[in-house]
Fold this protein.
Amino acid sequence: MACVDCYTGTLHSGTPSGRVTKVHGLPTYIASPSGGAPKGLIIIISDAFGWSLPNTRILADTYAQKGNFLVYVPDFMNGYTLPNHIYGLSTPLLTPGLKASLWKPLFIILILICGTPWILRYLIFCRTEIVLPRIKAFFHALRANSPLPLGAAGFCWGGRYALLMAAEDGPEGRKGLVDAAFVAHPSKVKVPEEVESVRCPVSIAAAGADSIFSTDDVDKTRIALDKKADVEFEIETYEGATHGFAVRNNPAIAKEKKQGIDAEVQAIA
């Protein structure tokens, strides 16, 4: 299931300051803290626009500098991400007003022509049965080779996989595969089944106006986590926010900018 908000948003200005290398076989963007030894390692599992989206890399830089974390953004999608130009084609569909409505059929046609091949590639090559083994292998390799506390941060498409990593068994001597997880406006989460399996602290940033991870899903998630006495959790609902707000908010709109910043603080708290 997808919505228009899955394919819209604002490209953020700024230049990512990290570096790109291969980590355990995957191209990976790395953001390092400037304040000395990192206190932990965060793996960002991106939304459908992938590991190279400027917004995601700038967010990784923010986590590194403000939270003193080492942050990895791997290419879990093997290059089959949605292209940034879909932003410009989809955003007018959300513009209110009669004049904007007259142009919407044209933009729908443009999306079908320019976007459909990319969306089909994404839907075919980023299926769970293809990407989940890749994500698991990466996290297990890190867990086996890094002494740092390990966290997962997932957004939209990646939100579900962050939850799944929070439910994974760790190697011998470790309670779980990750020590904590942050999940923002996830998609395709099987509620409550996949939530009930979580075994580490989890923080969820929910969008108040999200048709994908709906208010009903949020309520069911809260009930499922409440039953797990051994798992710490928090769920923050950002009223009026739409799916994708933690990554693709519009900084020119004060409320959206604040909600994006508040989600950053929630993630690294």
In short: The radius of gyration is 18 Å. Strands lie at 19-23, 26-31, 41-45, 70-74, 150-155, 180-184, 202-209, 233-242. The mean pLDDT is 90.
